[in-house]
Amino acid sequence: MSGFKHLSINELIHMSSESNDIQVVDIRDAASFTAAHIEGSTNLTNENLATFIADADMDKPLVVVCYHGMSSQSAANYLNEQGFDDVYSLDGGFSAWSLAHS
Ligand SMILES: O=S(=O)([O-])[S-]
Q1: What is the pLDDT of residue 22?
Q2: Which residues form the Rhodanese domain (predicted)?
């Protein structure tokens, strides 16, 4: 069984409006993240991954964002294996998010 769920842009907008507890991690490269990212998201890299996992509240929903929604799926699965109970992969990734907010 896959350890993550798919989340659409609209579902993320809805979830964020209902709760402040959602953690959003962006696994794109640092330059892309710096150029633009979802407000409140954290750039998750190989360098800060261990610290992020150690410090995180694993009971809170965790949404993983990549470029187009492909690599976020394996990252979401991995993070679920690390103990996050409620993990989502953002369908369409940051490119879909940008389109929806342009
Ligand atoms: O980031 S991506 O795998 O969707 S191209």
Answers
A1: 96
A2: 18-102
**Three-state SS sequence of 12-63:** HHHHHHHCCCCEEEECCCHHHHHHCCCCCCEECCCCCHHHHHHHCCCCCCEE
Phi and psi based region of residue 75 (left: phi greater than 0; alpha: psi -120 to 50; beta: remaining): alpha
pLDDT for res 101: 87
Determine if ligand 1 sits within 6 Å of the CB of residue 92.
Answer: no
Gap from CA of 64 to ligand 1 centroid (Å) = 11
Distance from residue 65's CA to the centre of ligand 1 (Å): 9
Q: Taking the model in full, what pTM does it have?
A: 0.95
Any catalytic annotation for residue 91? no
71 lines ligand 1 (CB under 6 A): yes
Ramachandran area for residue 44 (φ above 0: left; ψ -120 to 50: alpha; else beta)? beta
